Amino acid sequence: MLSSPEPSLPARPDPWTALRAHTPARIALGRAGGSLPTAARLDFLLAHARARDAVQASFDAEALAGALAAAGIAHAVAASGAADRATYLARPDLGRRLAPASRRDLEARAAAWGGRDLAVIVSDGLSAPAAQRHAVPTLAPLLARLTAAGWSVTPVLVVPFARVKLQDELGALLRSRLSLILLGERPGLGVPDSLGAYLTHGPGPDRTDADRNCVSNIRPEGLPPAAAAERLAGLLLAAARLGRSGTSLKEDAALAGDAELSPPAP
Fold this sequence. Notes:
This protein is α/β, with parallel strands linked by helices. It has a single domain, classed as Ethanolamine ammonia-lyase light chain (EutC) (Rossmann fold, 3-Layer(aba) Sandwich). It contains eight helices and six strands, in the order ααβααβαβαβββαα. Strands 1-3-2-4-5-6 form a six-stranded mixed sheet, with helices on both faces. Helix 2 (about 60-70) packs parallel to helix 5. The longest helix has 21 residues, at about 130-150. The model is unreliable at about 260-265 (pLDDT under 50).
């Protein structure tokens, strides 16, 4: 005799449901028996697929260069040592240095571009959509504020497949006092287009991550680009005034004392 199937259990709400209004994190998803509700499971799979797509997405460096030009930002395009995305993901070391041809080109430009206050790189990193969407809205107000304060800035270098440390090679090559790189962060589940910005005082081959300050989660739903530009400007001004960055530059104390816009002291 065949037994009738057991009735499906309805999804039960989670007692923490009210907390979901305060965070995009996956909390208070409810429960159906001992499992997640179907809707929560499908939402997780969709977010995971979007994160994978962001990592694999193509980076249109020429389109970004066009957007920089439209915003009136001087720029150039260069290459890292990683020739394609598969190599970039498998060989992080190649993303930390310029391709030989690009290094030679920048060495030739060093006489004209060298010795400025700030060198800037934009890259896709681990999320091309983040760079395509948020780099220009962040850089435009940032560079406007710095140049109005008397800072000299190199043309923004668009470099596909770059890692954070590439800013050290570029900064040393051009003898810039500070360097800044904007690149896509590793996508999270639900956040596929987050932009990160890293700045370093006195960039050079001996610099480590401890020598950098990071502003992350730059996107309209996180730290909006205009607000990120203000925060980065304050950090750059403080780093220049105090002559340090990274763990020795405490953000709250540095920004609290930054009452005056001024270029770095010689």
